Each structure stands twice: as structure tokens, then as C-alpha cells.
Amino acid sequence: MNNPHQSTQPIDESTRAEQLAKVNALLSAPCDEDWIAETEHIEGDSWVEAGVMAKPYVEYLKSLTPEQHRFLRRRMRLFSILYPELEGWLQSWGLGRSFKAVYTEARQLIYECLKQPTPEQNDWIDALIAEDDQNLPRAERTLRAQVIPMLSSLLTQEDRQALADIAAQGMAQGVLQMVQVDAVPPVAV
Questions:
Q1: Of 113, 107, 147, nearest in space to 128 by CA
Q2: What is the model's pLDDT at position 4?
Q3: How many CB atoms lie within 10 A of CB 58?
Q4: Would you say 117 and 108 are in contact if contact means Cβ atoms under 8 Å apart?
Q5: pTM (predicted TM-score)
Q6: Is 100:92 a contact under the CB 8 Å cutoff?
Q7: Average pLDDT over residues 97-113
């Protein structure tokens, strides 16, 4: 079947580059500080929606105060720094098949720990985000180097035990699955 909206002729490189530039501009706009500042002042029915599924989310965003928007944006920035560091740290544990379950639980635990940060944690978070905004080379990000010790300090003994239990369960399931595969009688050739 032919799609009436799809051209059957090849696209030349300059047209492809132009289309790619437009797509990149659209995708990067929500990350641009000027764009964000501009959209913080949108009033009335000026919102742009991405479809029916976005409607509840857009309604939720419309209901927020500017302070709530700043709070959510700060949380998003924080976890965009913390979660990749957490992932790398957990990968160094050699969890194998248990990694995904342990990572999911660890993310939730860290999120819960930072729902209501202490004043000291708030100061550290603000400094971490400010350092990230500077786009310094990785070696010069002194606060970023403190993320793993900070994450470790957030986890209680009970949290660590929960992660260990999840890892053990995942390893046990993996072993049991492998034993079942090995227990199948060989096929005669």
C-alpha cells in the first residue's frame, strides 16, 4: 500500500540536513533557557499540546504556580545528575541479571530520601546543579565527584539490606533458570 503522505523520490542531502536541523531545533527547544523563560509567561489558551495523551499532563502543568514549576524543574535537574551516577555505581557491583531490579529499587529509595531534603542537602543540591550548569570538564566537577558518597550516605542499613535481598533474589532466579535449561535432556543427533 502506498502512503499518500510519503514521497517515493529520494531526498537530497541538503533537504535531509535542513529537515534534520528543524527536528533538532524542536527537540532542543524545551531545554533552552530562553525558551523556558518565555513559556513560563504563557497565559490563557496559548498552550501547545502533543495529543490526547498529553492533555492531563498539560492541565496539571497549567494548575501549577511558578514556584511549583521551579521546584519540579529543580527536582528534574537533580535526578538527571544523580541517576546516571547511581547507575554507574551499581554497575560496578557486578549484579548481572539483578541489576535492573536493584537499580529500580535504589532509584526509589534515593527519591524517597530526597523528598524533603535537609537544609544542608538543599545547599549541596543547589551547588551541584550550579556546578552542572557551568559545563565544566568532568575532572573539574568537584561536587559531581561527591555524588556517590552522598548517595551512599542516604541509604540506611535497611535500604542496603533491601538492595542485597533484591540482588540475591535476582541471582537465585537466574541460577534456577539456568539449571532448568541445563536439565533438558539432550537431543539425539
A1: 147
A2: 47
A3: 13
A4: no
A5: 0.64
A6: no
A7: 94
